[in-house]
């Protein structure tokens, strides 16, 4: 039976003419149809506008000057009429029962302000077998209380956990519109860095109860046009977002030490990726941002190599990268043997 809630769907889009139609068809095919679908065209310069025109009888289009993903989401949020709002990025996919299962949270527990669903990555049209929730570290979901079936609830702040592992994505999120607006909506202060939605998720999981659907009903497509597969940009983006939170969001100040540790961890991961890619200028830059206490002997060695003249640096860099690759292969064979 259809729930009494009115549901709006917001789809921000920028230059996704080739991917947007399949995303919209997934939204149209929901077992619990959306009451309205708002597509915010964020200044697209390809043929996205023509694609939107072909769907004009089924969607509401809002055109804005290119302002970034967070701004586009907020524009859609402010124009939504539903008491519940779901967000879907223009390249992602929903299973037919997604809206039905997400809306169910507000019948199970009226105090929920936000709910998240599990997802799988989609590579070349194939949904991967292991979901994001399944990849979480041991003990990550220990505080999750079952409400009904695969619907669960977090009754305490989840910020500390999210600093260690981030399984929540915008396309898997449904919110109580009035309460989300009252909290400021999507955090635009972080600008357009990769992973800019992380700031909003951290703030939302500090306001329990939080609904968690342990069922992968969302597909996150990996393709040449998105950045979520670029680990270096993700690590740098997350570090920037976390620093911005410390500087501007007093509500999360009590997590300062944990946030600082997370920043250092992400910068260190970026340091390693940059070295492996041969971006030694970035290695030198990152060294100045990383606390000496978290650097090990191999980090100092890599930094020393990065500072050498190119005639000495390049052969040493190649040898250390090759040695690291060989060591990784040996470890893999050893694990297989056991």
Automatic annotation (TrEMBL):
SUPFAM superfamilies, alphabetized: Nucleotide-diphospho-sugar transferases
The record ties this protein, via Gene3D superfamilies, to: Spore Coat Polysaccharide Biosynthesis Protein SpsA, Chain A (3.90.550.10)
Q: Which CDD domains match?
A: Glyco_tranf_GTA_type
* Organism name: Acidihalobacter ferrooxydans
Pfam families documented for this protein:
Glycos_transf_2 (PF00535)
TM regions (residue ranges): none
Q: What name appears for this protein in its UniProt entry?
A: Glycosyltransferase 2-like domain-containing protein
Per UniProt, residues of the Glycosyltransferase 2-like domain are 8-132
């Amino acid at each position: 039976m259809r729930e009494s809630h009115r549901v709006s769907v917001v789809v921000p889009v920028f230059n996704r003419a080739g991917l947007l139609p399949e995303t919209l068809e997934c939204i149209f095919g929901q077992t619990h149809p959306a009451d309205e679908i708002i597509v915010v065209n964020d200044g697209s310069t390809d043929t996205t506008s023509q694609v939107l025109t072909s769907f004009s009888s089924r969607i509401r289009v809002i055109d804005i000057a290119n302002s970034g993903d967070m701004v586009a989401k907020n524009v859609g949020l402010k124009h939504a009429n539903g008491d519940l709002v779901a967000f879907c990025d223009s390249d992602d996919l929903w299973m037919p029962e997604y809206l039905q299962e997400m809306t169910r949270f507000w019948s199970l527990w009226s105090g929920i302000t936000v709910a998240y669903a599990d997802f799988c990555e989609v590579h070349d049209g194939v949904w991967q077998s292991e979901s994001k929730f399944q990849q979480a570290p041991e003990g990550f979901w220990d505080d999750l209380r079952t409400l009904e079936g695969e619907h669960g609830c977090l009754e305490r702040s989840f910020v500390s956990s999210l600093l260690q592992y981030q399984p929540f994505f915008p396309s898997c999120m449904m919110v109580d519109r009035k309460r989300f607006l009252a909290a400021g909506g999507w955090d635009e202060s972080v600008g357009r860095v990769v992973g800019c939605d992380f700031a909003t998720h951290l703030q939302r999981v500090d306001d329990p109860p939080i609904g968690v659907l342990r069922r992968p009903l969302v597909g996150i497509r990996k393709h040449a046009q998105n950045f979520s597969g670029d680990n270096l940009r993700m690590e740098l983006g997350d570090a920037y977002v976390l620093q911005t939170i410390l500087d501007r969001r007093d509500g999360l100040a009590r997590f300062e030490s944990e946030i600082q540790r997370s920043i250092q961890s992400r910068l260190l991961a970026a340091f390693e990726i940059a070295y492996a890619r041969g971006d030694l200028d970035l290695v030198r830059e990152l060294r100045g941002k990383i606390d000496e206490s978290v650097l090990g002997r191999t980090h100092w060695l890599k930094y020393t190599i990065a500072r050498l003249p190119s005639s000495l640096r390049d052969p040493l860099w190649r040898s250390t990268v090759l040695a690291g690759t060989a060591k990784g292969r040996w470890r893999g064979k050893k694990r297989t043997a056991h």
